[in-house]
Every structure is written in structure tokens, then in C-alpha cells.
Write a structure and sequence with these properties.
Chain lengths: 474, 313
């Protein structure tokens, strides 16, 4: 190993084995690569058999695909995680306070910390939510914070996911697969469990039930249906929580409650974990064309008779333009200095920033404010002249649609390849559950890995894979 | 339970049962063809008919040949009742009701689906046919075993059973409908080898040869076969058996309600008026008319179940 600029989570920058990987490495050294290759194939087979797939959009036939899984775990020490999870908790607390403020008094705007037009001119701002008090005061019941790492203690938040973050089923199935493939590893290493997530999720959602709920609240998961790319996850979570998986056409408003059509008639729901976007939630209040939602659910919600998780309108908090204000937001609501770093961000809506971005396109990552999934973005250092020219035109035409960030040198974690261990870039999405007075960060999360050498794009839709993420008990 | 889920469970088990029945029909047809006693192409017409697939077949084919019939029944996507289509549809419904079935049942169905993609992905050559059909039957049996061994005995299980027995009754009735004439006393030159082959093929297509032999030895003729398939409550594919299971499962579903639902009334009607006679009365009434009437009542029952349990909005 030679010294590199890129921080590898197993070998650091100087090639010396890092502490969290010590036990794993001594195990790996004893293993026959042929056996590991066979295990890798077994793991793939297991995923196929259990049907852990995602659907690919834009194909004539709804094709189901597996997300590649790599058997080398990503390992984080307990101490590292402790610091990280405190930062995550702080950020999530701030996001909820921000949402409440934005839909009520807008103190942060009045204090001049965020320009008024960032809110009023933002498509993600939902006027229907003004003055609405969500049950238990919780806006974001489930949050996924996307993190990247550049050094031993250097974590950056790349993106907050405050709408309907996905991927948690992979976190759980990756662990399940590792437990089946390498049980011996888990008796040697003390890995913190993630397997309580579904039970915690149900408890957390139930704790947010409206006052009208009596006894054990009825929870249901709302999915757009079996052709949705994340259907597997919707079914998985409903199954693991032991609640009904419903679609829009199973629901209607009956006597001022949202109710599901059962074999014995309509039964009211107290908490709806919806995996349908705001826009499709209610054809009477939002997109009238939507067949995925429930006509009138917003009126039930505003009357306080159902909990919708996450609350409508939370998109204003994970908007990429708002992202650049996150340090101010955290400070404003918690009175504390932010524990997690933000990536430096140029808002192209501002003329000076735009000028800088246009001058330095080859160095920067440019993203659409409302984009996701790694689509519609420019990675300057690897982009062709043609792509850069095309983005220059887009930026000049609609600068407000874009932000730019420096290209970070993301950390790597080894994957198991034909050549043995080979470093690949990774990111991390920990999952956070919020209920009244409680924020719970699951120890671990979803590690996505760019399988192509040198690539920085980890999205599954673009050739990324996943790994099990271990948080050790120190 | 959601009405949609009940619907998904019902169709999941119907499609699985249908796939298995079609595999059995193909095995029977293939066997008759090999014995060369019947007219082979004619036999495939009756196999297509028994599988309820003749009309669809004729829409896209001019003549019935063995190869074309086999392909249509095994793997043609245009045939919604081909084994391949049935298994895909069963899996699609299983995906829809993923939260209602156990992980074991889901994995067994998913494995069946992957097997069918493998073995039915391209044309099946005659040499491979017995092994392919055996694999299909083994896989569907595995799913049934997982349902049996891992599912709670609750309303979810009831809807699975209802789908299975409705499809099975329908299948047995269709086989009788297509082959009724070989069971009629007037045509039967008892003991002729052609009749023996035909009778055997009826038994074979409902996996009843062993049971029938156990009961009647070598003595059974058409009347006994008809009795066995219609009235014998020990025979798991007879109409009486299937209908009594339908009655039981509907009763379990409705246990909490004091008065019987319409599908319960209908199933009681079928049982009292059609399945409480003896075979001589059926022949007096007309075997063909009897079977046709039963088939249409079974279709009514399926529709009534859909309504009673709110499968659709």
C-alpha cells in the first residue's frame, strides 16, 4: 500500500490497517478467496430468491433488478458513531423545528436568516400546511441523512431526505444476508443490531397517532403499487411491522376518517406511513389526475383525525437550495453550533455565485435544486467538454434551478473483486425515527458503493451497489 | 383483511392450482399420444378444451398439432392460462399480498417463478417434457406444502383454500365436460381397449388412478368413474370434496356473523341440489347437462364471493 490523498476506511491514507477493521482483517486473511467467491454467489442467489429487487423505470416491461451486494462490510467504531449520531440528532431536531416555524410564524425569515423568497417562491412549500399542527408536533417521522466522509473525523452532510427516504429494507436485508453467510464474523465482532428497526418504526409511528385514535393505533403503509420502483421495500416494511399495505383505491374517507376497505367493511386508519409523494396524496387538494392518493385525506388531516408520515410539505426542508442554509437553521433553532458539516454550496440564483460556478465548471459538481437519484447532475472533473458546454447553457438559462459544490474526495471502502480487495467510493444513509420528544438513530444505515473504479456515483439506478454497515460496540 | 388482499390470495392460489392442473393434462395427453390408440391430434384438441384454452388457441392457429398445442399450454404469453402465464400471475398476486403470506411461501413461489423462467424460457423439446412437467408439479406442491406448514389458520388461509378448491372443482368439471361421452353407457363397448385408454386418461388427469384402483380394483367402469369424480368425498379432486371444502372455508370466514352470506347460501344450494344424489340419477338427468349446470354454478359462486368479500370497489 502506498500513500494516497483519498481516505480509505480500512487502510487510512498511509496504508496502516485502521482499528475498527482489525478483527475483520485477521478473519479475511485466513479465508480462502475461492470460498469467499462462492459465498458472494450464494449471497446473490439469496437476494434473488427472497425477491429483493427494485423496478427500473423507462423500460417497456417493468423489469425487476437486483442491487449488487458486496460482502465486505463497512465498519465504523462505536466512538465514531457516537459523534456522528449526536450530529444527526441535532440536525433532525433542527429540521422539525424549522418546518414548524415555516408553516407558522416564520421567525427565521423575520430574523433575516433566510430570504423570504426562498420560502414563498419555493415549489416545495405547501400553503395547505400553513397553521396546521401535525399530531404530536412531528413533521419528519422518518429521515435519511446522506453523509460522505473525507477523513478520519471528517463527515459532511450531502443531502437531507425529509420526504420519503428509501433504502432501509436494504440495510436490513444486507445484515440478514451477512448473518446467514458469515455467522462466525458476528460472534467475533460485536456489531450493534439494526434488526429492531421495523419494531421501532411501528412504535414510533404509533406514538404519533392523533388524539382520535383509541387503544392500539391502526397503522398502514400506503404504496403507489406493485409497479413502483420501491414496492419491495413498501411490502417489506408493512410485513415486518405487521400492518396493512394499502393503495389509494383501498382507501376512502368515511365519517371524517380515512378508512380501508376490508373484507368486513371499512375500517379507520390512525397513522398512514405514506410512500406516495405530496402531489399525488389527495386529488381533491393537489394533483387532480392522481389515482394513487385518497380524495379528501388532506381535510381529514387538517381536522387532526389522521397522522400522515411524513407530514405533507416537508420537502421544503430537504430542498437543495435550503440545504445551503442548514448551518444557520441548526444554529437558529438549537442555539448550538452545528456538529455536522455542510458541503460548501454556491447558490446559482446569486449572480456572484453564478459567475464563480461558470468560471470553475470543470472543478465543481452541479445539481438541480429539485433533482434526485443522481439524474440531471454534472460532475465537472469527469464530464466531457460537450456536457460542460450543455450545462453552461442550462445554468445561464435558469440559474435558480441549480446549486454547485466542490468535488469532495469521498472515502473508499474495499469491495471484494477478482483482484481481491479493491477500494471504491462510498456514501452513507443512516435512518432516523422521530416521535414526540424522541429521536432515534439506527446504528448503521445504508452504505452505497460505486462499483466502477474511480466513480463517485453511488446511485443504484446508475450502477451502484450496497454493503452491510457495521457499528461496533466499543 | 383488505378486500384487495383477499382477491390477491384467491387468485394466487387459483393460478397455482391451474398451472398444476394444466401440467397434469399435458402429461395425460402426451401419454395417450404415445400409446397410439387414440387419434393424437384429436386428443390435443380435447386437452386444449379441458384446459379451457381451445378458443384462444384457434384464434391464432389454423390447425391443432401436438407441438403447437404443447407450446400454447406450456409457455405462450398470449395464453393467459399457459403454465408460464399462470405462474407469473400467481407470483404477481403473491407480490401484491406479500404482507399476508409467510416468507417461506413467498420464497417457494418466487423459486417456482424462477424455475419456470428457466425451463419454459425457450421451446421445450419432447425429450425434456416429462422432466419439465415433473419439476413444475414438484414446485407447485412445494408452495402448497409451505402454505400448509407455515400459514396461520385464519381468514388469509381461508381465501387461499377457497381459490384452490374453486379452481380444482372447475378443472374436474371441465375434464368431465369434455370427456363425458366416453362415460355414457350407450357408447361404451365395455372392455374395448380404446375405452380403457380413455377412462384411464380421465383418471390420470385428476391423479386418481391409484385411488380408484384401491377402491374398485379392476372392476370399475364408466359409472364408477363418474361417481368417483363427482360424489366421492374421500377423493381430493372430486366435485363433492371441493364443494364441501368451499362450504367449510366460507363458514370459517363468516363465523363471526350470525346470518349466512350469499355465497354460503349458493354453496349450500350446489351441495343439496347437485351433489347429494347418486350417479344413476345423474345419468337419468343427463351427465352432460349436469356438468354444464355445475360449471355455471361454480362461476356464479366465484362472482358471489368477489362481492361478499369486497374484492373490488
Amino acid at each position: 500500500m502506498t500513500t494516497t490523498d483519498i481516505f480509505d476506511e480500512m487502510w487510512g491514507t498511509d496504508g496502516a490497517l485502521r482499528e475498527p477493521y482489525r478483527d475483520f482483517h485477521s478473519w479475511f486473511d485466513q479465508e480462502d478467496p475461492a470460498r469467499l467467491r462462492a459465498k458472494q454467489r450464494d449471497a446473490d442467489e439469496l437476494f434473488r430468491l427472497t425477491g429483493i429487487t427494485f423496478n427500473v423505470y423507462g423500460k417497456a416491461e417493468a423489469e425487476e433488478r437486483l442491487i449488487p451486494f458486496d460482502i465486505i462490510p463497512r465498519i465504523i467504531s462505536g466512538a465514531e458513531w457516537y459523534r456522528l449520531s449526536r450530529g444527526i440528532e441535532q440536525r433532525v431536531r433542527a429540521i422539525n423545528a424549522f418546518l414548524h416555524d415555516i408553516y407558522h410564524k416564520q421567525e427565521i425569515v423575520k430574523a433575516g436568516r433566510i430570504p423570504e423568497k426562498m420560502i414563498s417562491h419555493n415549489d416545495a412549500f405547501l400553503p395547505h400546511m400553513i397553521g396546521v399542527e401535525p399530531p404530536g408536533g412531528v413533521y419528519t417521522h422518518i429521515v435519511g441523512i446522506d453523509l460522505v466522509r473525507t477523513g478520519p473525523g471528517e463527515f459532511f452532510v450531502l443531502e437531507d431526505n425529509a420526504r420519503t427516504p428509501s433504502g432501509v429494507s436494504y440495510m436490513l436485508e444486507n445484515r440478514e444476508t451477512m448473518l446467514q453467510m458469515f455467522p462466525e464474523l458476528f460472534s467475533q465482532n460485536r456489531v450493534q443490531s439494526v434488526q429492531n428497526y421495523p419494531a421501532n418504526l411501528r412504535r414510533s409511528l404509533a406514538a404519533c397517532a392523533p388524539e382520535s385514535a383509541s387503544g392500539d393505533p391502526v397503522v398502514a403503509v400506503l404504496t403507489p403499487g406493485i409497479y413502483n420502483s420501491a414496492y419491495f421495500e413498501h411490502a417489506f416494511l408493512a410485513d415486518q411491522m405487521g400492518v396493512e399495505l394499502v393503495e389509494g383505491h383501498d382507501l376512502r374517507v368515511v365519517d371524517g376518517r380515512v378508512a380501508m376497505r376490508t373484507t368486513c367493511g371499512y375500517k379507520p386508519i390512525d397513522v398512514l406511513y405514506r410512500r406516495v409523494d405530496d402531489d399525488f396524496l389527495d386529488p381533491l387538494n393537489f394533483n387532480p389526475e392522481s389515482a394513487l392518493g385518497v380524495p379528501g385525506i388532506m381535510d381529514v388531516y387538517r381536522a387532526g383525525n389522521i397522522t400522515v408520515a411524513n407530514a405533507p410539505g416537508t420537502g421544503i426542508a430537504d430542498d437543495k437550495a435550503i440545504y445551503s442554509y442548514m448551518p444557520e437553521i441548526v444554529e437558529f433553532y438549537t442555539g448550538e453550533r452545528p456538529l455536522l458539516k455542510n458541503v460548501q454550496t454556491w447558490r446559482c440564483s446569486e449572480p456572484e455565485a453564478l459567475a464563480y460556478v461558470l468560471d470553475n465548471l470543470e472543478e465543481l459538481v452541479v445539481k438541480e435544486v429539485h433533482g434526485s437519484g443522481g439524474y440531471g447532475m454534472l460532475i465537472g472533473p469527469t464530464a466531457s467538454k460537450k456536457d460542460i458546454a450543455a450545462f453552461r447553457r442550462k445554468l445561464n438559462a435558469r440559474p435558480g434551478n441549480y446549486i454547485a459544490q466542490p468535488t469532495l474526495s469521498l472515502s473508499t471502502v474495499p469491495i471484494f473483486s477478482r483482484a481481491g480487495l479493491s477500494p471504491r467510493h462510498v456514501d452513507l444513509r443512516p435512518f432516523v425515527l422521530v416521535s414526540p420528544g424522541k429521536i432515534h438513530v439506527t446504528p448503521g444505515g445504508l452504505t452505497r458503493v460505486a462499483l466502477k473504479k474511480g466513480s463517485l456515483v453511488v446511485n443504484s439506478s446508475q450502477g451502484g451497489g450496497t454493503k452491510d454497515t457495521w457499528v461496533l460496540e466499543d | 383483511m383488505l378486500g384487495k388482499t383477499a382477491n390477491g390470495l384467491f387468485w394466487m392460489s387459483r393460478y397455482l392450482e391451474r398451472a398444476e392442473n394444466t401440467a397434469r393434462l399435458i402429461e395425460t395427453g402426451q401419454r395417450i399420444g404415445l400409446t397410439r390408440l387414440g387419434n393424437s391430434d384429436e386428443e390435443w384438441v380435447s386437452v386444449l378444451q379441458s384446459a379451457g384454452a381451445l378458443t384462444g388457441f384457434q384464434a391464432s392457429h389454423n390447425t391443432v398439432t401436438k407441438d403447437a398445442a404443447l407450446n400454447w399450454l406450456l409457455r405462450d404469453r398470449d395464453n393467459s392460462s399457459s403454465i408460464q402465464s399462470c405462474i407469473s400471475a400467481a407470483r404477481q398476486n403473491a407480490r401484491l399480498v406479500r404482507t399476508a403470506i409467510t416468507g417461506e411461501v413467498w420464497e417457494a413461489i418466487n423459486a417456482t417463478y424462477m424455475m419456470s423462467k428457466d425451463t419454459l424460457g425457450r421451446k421445450v423439446i419432447e425429450r425434456d417434457l416429462p422432466a419439465v412437467l415433473r419439476t413444475i408439479r414438484q414446485n407447485t406442491a412445494l408452495v402448497r406444502g409451505m402454505v400448509n406448514g407455515t400459514m396461520l389458520r385464519n381468514d388469509i388461509y381461508d381465501f387461499l383454500r377457497i381459490g384452490t378448491f374453486l379452481e380444482r372443482a372447475d378443472n374436474t368439471a371441465r375434464i368431465l365436460d369434455v370427456k363425458y361421452y366416453v362415460l355414457l353407457p350407450s357408447v361404451s363397448a365395455v372392455g374395448s381397449s380404446i375405452d380403457n385408454v380413455q377412462w384411464e386418461s380421465i383418471l390420470r388427469s385428476v391423479s386418481a388412478r391409484g385411488g380408484f384402483r384401491m377402491e374398485y380394483g379392476a372392476e370399475g367402469g364408466p359409472q364408477e368413474i363418474a361417481h368417483f369424480l363427482i360424489f366421492d368425498k374421500r377423493m381430493p379432486r372430486s366435485l363433492a370434496f371441493c364443494v364441501s371444502k368451499l362450504k367449510d372455508n366460507l363458514r370459517y370466514l363468516n363465523a363471526r356473523v350470525s346470518k349466512p352470506c350469499d355465497s354460503q347460501k349458493l354453496v349450500a344450494h350446489i351441495e343439496t341440489n347437485y351433489l347429494s344424489h347418486d350417479i344413476a340419477e345423474v345419468f337419468d338427468y343427463g351427465l352432460h347437462e349436469f356438468i354444464q349446470k355445475t360449471l355455471s354454478l361454480l362461476a356464479d359462486l366465484a362472482r358471489q364471493i368477489e362481492q361478499d368479500f369486497r374484492f373490488y370497489e
